[in-house]
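Support case: coenzyme A complex. Customer-provided input:
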Amino acid sequence: MTKILIIGGVAGGASAAARARRLSEDAEIIMFERGPYISFANCGLPYHIGGDIEQRDALLLQTPESFKARFNVDVRVMNEVVSINRQNKTLTIRNLETQENYQESYDKLVLSPGASPIVPPIPGIQNSRTFSLRNIPDMDKIIASIEHNQPKHATVVGGGFIGIEMAEALIQRGINTSLIELSEQVMAPVDREMATPLHQEMQHHGVDLRLGVALEAVFPSQQEAADELASVDEQGIELRLSNGDLLETELLIMAIGVKPETSLARQANLSIGELGGIQVNSQLQTSDPDIYAVGDAIEDPEFVTGDAALIPLAGPANRQGRMVANNIFGAGEHYKRSQGTAICKIFDIAVASTGLNEKTLQRKGINYQKVYVHAASHAGYYPGAHPINLKLLFNPDSGAILGAQAVGKDGVDKRIDVIAVAQRAGLTVFDLQDLELTYAPPFGSAKDVVNQAGFVAANSIKGDTRLCHSEEINNPNEQQIILDVRNPAELEKLGAIPGAINIPVDQLRERINELPKDKEILVYCMVGLRGNVAYRQLLNHGFKAKNLTGGYKTWLANQ
Amino acid sequence: MTKILIIGGVAGGASAAARARRLSEDAEIIMFERGPYISFANCGLPYHIGGDIEQRDALLLQTPESFKARFNVDVRVMNEVVSINRQNKTLTIRNLETQENYQESYDKLVLSPGASPIVPPIPGIQNSRTFSLRNIPDMDKIIASIEHNQPKHATVVGGGFIGIEMAEALIQRGINTSLIELSEQVMAPVDREMATPLHQEMQHHGVDLRLGVALEAVFPSQQEAADELASVDEQGIELRLSNGDLLETELLIMAIGVKPETSLARQANLSIGELGGIQVNSQLQTSDPDIYAVGDAIEDPEFVTGDAALIPLAGPANRQGRMVANNIFGAGEHYKRSQGTAICKIFDIAVASTGLNEKTLQRKGINYQKVYVHAASHAGYYPGAHPINLKLLFNPDSGAILGAQAVGKDGVDKRIDVIAVAQRAGLTVFDLQDLELTYAPPFGSAKDVVNQAGFVAANSIKGDTRLCHSEEINNPNEQQIILDVRNPAELEKLGAIPGAINIPVDQLRERINELPKDKEILVYCMVGLRGNVAYRQLLNHGFKAKNLTGGYKTWLANQ
Ligand SMILES: Cc1cc2nc3c(=O)[nH]c(=O)nc-3n(C[C@H](O)[C@H](O)[C@H](O)COP(=O)(O)OP(=O)(O)OC[C@H]3O[C@@H](n4cnc5c(N)ncnc54)[C@H](O)[C@@H]3O)c2cc1C
Ligand SMILES: Cc1cc2nc3c(=O)[nH]c(=O)nc-3n(C[C@H](O)[C@H](O)[C@H](O)COP(=O)(O)OP(=O)(O)OC[C@H]3O[C@@H](n4cnc5c(N)ncnc54)[C@H](O)[C@@H]3O)c2cc1C
Ligand SMILES: CC(C)(COP(=O)(O)OP(=O)(O)OC[C@H]1O[C@@H](n2cnc3c(N)ncnc32)[C@H](O)[C@@H]1OP(=O)(O)O)[C@@H](O)C(=O)NCCC(=O)NCCS
Ligand SMILES: CC(C)(COP(=O)(O)OP(=O)(O)OC[C@H]1O[C@@H](n2cnc3c(N)ncnc32)[C@H](O)[C@@H]1OP(=O)(O)O)[C@@H](O)C(=O)NCCC(=O)NCCS
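Agent response - structure generated as follows:
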């Protein structure tokens, strides 16, 4: 009889426990959770705060009792594991209700302790109006603070997915909300120009977005010529930002990221990786073969490079938990490299990504090319089509897919999923051209966005198109001219790139002599499609040219 | 200078023309279209009839003038090619406006003549109330008939996607509609049990669905003790069905399928394939290397077997048209095998499929296993989640993906797209377990439907689960008993499989002695998930068991 102890009772831990029981009736399985709940939907927390998920209970997928009944697992909530004693293969556990410590021995140990919100040592940050969000009690506290203090203004620090979801939740509750982000963009997994529509969407919905600023200090509110003795609790707080701004607020959510929970692992001298996560081999064993680790606490090998990455997402945690149970019973399964496929809803739009982004490719010195496609989520003539903005990163020689990002109101999840599968399977951009995807007018296009991205990328590799990017068209050299092939009405309404001359694509053939043969013509249209028509015409008429990928839309997002 | 003639000005033809021009400015390109329009959205026709697409113009993506301006293609509408003269490489064309014939020579010829609706020689079918739908004039005639005759009742013959879309369109216009289908199910690409929810959806929206009946004859209406001289035009028609029923109706849409347009190809002695489509090689050349053919008119090699298949869908037509242009200019590209990925909206639900269905696997004698998964389109605790019913067919040894089908209100397109990419890339059901798909509560689940299908299929291949299907549980032998592990309230509300005993999964451990060890226990729950928990428990307690894949839901759909 194997005795399996599991630390952490949520995504990775509960999945491991459930699968372990399905694999063996006679294993003894104990799951320790220091919090009061197991198997809860962390990912749903912001949506309960915002009101979309009405019932708090909906977030509790299992209870210790239901887990016992179904899986015969001894679930111990409010029990914190305080140390791992590898020599004698025991744990020391503190019962947080009785404050007593006790021991439990194991044959196999699974660590799924998750990650904890990063709260930097900013002066004044420890106060009764400041929260972070990781679990049900955190959520309860935020809701209690809102209900008790009825804040008119809240501030979220951090523009990752939790920060964004919290800003949306607060706005939905009618609270004016500022979001403060140190970098020049929200949603670090995508590149800056892909974040531009997110910024617009947030501002459009009333978020006071402050990019490129940090929170430096928190003070009790000065606003109401305050009674010096009045507490933060009564009067709210004031924030000092790195740009010198002062911001009165009544609720502060810290959401600048999470760090792997490694205190137990460190104390037990398990190997820690370069990024601070627990190091595991491909079978998800730590440096001690009887101890497995999964989820937010570990480092995963990133798909393109195999380099260590922190991928604090629920999908990997769930699947790793299941795999560890398999491996405990000898399956010998290997966790594959991780693409970090992710998505976030931002009011009415979605942003998603898979693989590496351009920033990372640059940082790692990996050779890449990029294309942008803007196409409709489904046939444009059928109601409800919305543009999808897709960025595809690939190896300019082999066409291997390096990463993809997409933004839009509809169908963003589908396109990134499709590309994620293609990347995982080792398909190239050439293969994207041939993908046979579902098409009927309400669902797609005869040539889907993903096929189009394949065409554009393949054209670039084959030399059928030379691509131009915003950086180049913003700084044309003496030997380059800029040609806008849109209709004059579009230029008038939407503006144009400085210095461009305008010949609409449908007049180009007859007016081609207006263009110089000795210069390179940087062509653009709204998205790149007419630019491609014009580009090919110019090329076949003996001109030198390049087509701005993504067109004016991407250029604008880059400004 | 290459002279390229193209027959057919819609999906395949217009795509070939546009791409050919992008590849060469000096090629002479003439596109012949016997109808009055080019580049129209065939797929949108039913939605204009039903009113979803309000503007008729929205269906016309290009005109001869716009095509000339952008692509410098000589577009000749109302010009029917009447013969191909391969010896001297010319076409004979009839100008349908002047009724004059003329010749045009070619270097390369592209056939994209499409397919034509099958109208069987049913007595009386040639009448002024009977239509089929392929192009804009067909649509105009149907709308004119509706507007002129104000029918209270219409009949659609054929339950393929065009028939279904037409039934929906007519219902949307407030017309009572009968749909007559010879087989026992609509949507032949999916298997019968997957069509059950479609039947329910259509009936729920008021379609009078008559399965397993054929149209045998059409008469002038007898209804209103009619003036013998009154014409069909004035009084409508009466249908005689194969089951003896008579059906008064005022509008009849024939939508029993299409057949490849091969008259020109046959007359020119080009090879015709076994299914009656034009035969092409992988470069899309007909038996005459200077003549290419694409689209609905050709036979494609089916993905799993390589056998010939007719795949009359817009995606393939568009991509083949583009590829032919590439090949005319020497690219030497190969058209890959076709999966026939397709989707159809049926009122509020969607049905989609890729690869082979079970009927075809059986007919072809291909070894397969199948699993059914019912899971939510996104996290169940986030509002708006709807069940997806997914059927996955795979090789029971290698796990190669043979085909997939899905039905549901939301996210069906995404799941079939994901599996279509996986199949095309040669991934197996084992790989489906590891797919990293976008997850946030509004978009998916930490373990997506597709991952779950991978788990279930992999379990079956590895021997972790033995699966049972409806056929078996309907006819248990002496050595089998049926165990329902749902809660009593579910059985009461929804019924149960005849002969089943009931022990709720969460009581199974304590009541396991109620079960016999010498019999095989056929376990089921609502969808298969709790059945899996119970199955594994039974197995690990030394019982013989099988789990009904898809559970009671799939069983019901099979009755
Ligand atoms: C607000 C929010 C929104 C999110 N949204 C998404 C999303 O949309 N998509 C997505 O993919 N991911 C999302 N995530 C991330 C996702 O929830 C995590 O990736 C996932 O839960 C990680 O699983 P885990 O098992 O590693 O850790 P957790 O689920 O955090 O579980 C770890 C548990 O271990 C317990 N624990 C730690 N140390 C001990 C100890 N010493 N003794 C006993 N118990 C201990 C903790 O109390 C904790 O409950 C979100 C997370 C949050 C907080
Ligand atoms: C109502 C309807 C709904 C559809 N919905 C979908 C859908 O949702 N999804 C999907 O994938 N597909 C759908 N399709 C199918 C899709 O439209 C076809 O697969 C696609 O149009 C095929 O392209 P093609 O170029 O082969 O033929 P077509 O687009 O039909 O073009 C062929 C053209 O050639 C012309 N022609 C034929 N012979 C001659 C000649 N001798 N001389 C001159 N011209 C000639 C014809 O007049 C015709 O216009 C639908 C079709 C219809 C009719
Ligand atoms: C609730 C929880 C314990 C479920 O664990 P689980 O039982 O392993 O997972 P699921 O309910 O998804 O079931 C998956 C199992 O059902 C099986 N299954 C699914 N559909 C099936 C079907 N139709 N037929 C047969 N089996 C099916 C799968 O094969 C798998 O079983 P296996 O591992 O034995 O192969 C765990 O997911 C959890 O705690 N989740 C909440 C926390 C969380 O994930 N938070 C972050 C996201 S918000
Ligand atoms: C309208 C029609 C002529 C368009 O033909 P097309 O110009 O080849 O196709 P698209 O407009 O989709 O453009 C695709 C081209 O734009 C390029 N493109 C698309 N997005 C781009 C971008 N962002 N940047 C650069 N190029 C882009 C593609 O690479 C491709 O060019 P290529 O073939 O030179 O590589 C043809 O699709 C048609 O007739 N359609 C209607 C009929 C029909 O399909 N009916 C059935 C479905 S309802």
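Chain B has a mean pLDDT of 97.

Case will auto-close in a few days if no follow-up is received.
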